[in-house]
Design brief:
Elements lengths: L3 H10 L4 H9 L3 H16 L7 H14 L4 H24 L4
Length: about 100
């Protein structure tokens, strides 16, 4: 679940050769980071339903920041996942007959 930046730090800290680190990180593109960040937020969001939206945003963005994601990506993913979750909740409440 780490972003490229955090993964680079982790691998370097563990003594992995910089050439190997660079090769490994070339395998991760922006789309991959977005997908992983979205999944992290989606999973965490289910346990945060009792919190106010502002607290959810703050906690989710902080979680992604700790994992090395940029603030721009973090807030984008959080906003999108919260909107998706809200629309899914609305559909669940309306039921199939509405």
């Amino acid at each position: 679940g780490l972003a490229r930046r955090a993964l680079r730090h982790e691998l370097t800290h563990r003594g992995v050769d910089s050439v190997v680190v660079d090769e490994a990180l070339e395998q991760i593109d922006d789309d991959s980071e977005y997908v992983v960040a979205s999944e992290l937020v989606r999973r965490k969001l289910t346990s945060m339903r009792s919190l106010e939206a502002e607290a959810q945003v703050r906690r989710l963005a902080s979680m992604l920041a700790r994992k090395g994601y940029t603030s721009g990506l973090a807030y984008r993913v959080v906003r999108e996942q919260m909107a998706q979750s809200a629309s899914e909740s609305l559909l669940d409440r309306r039921g199939p007959e509405d």
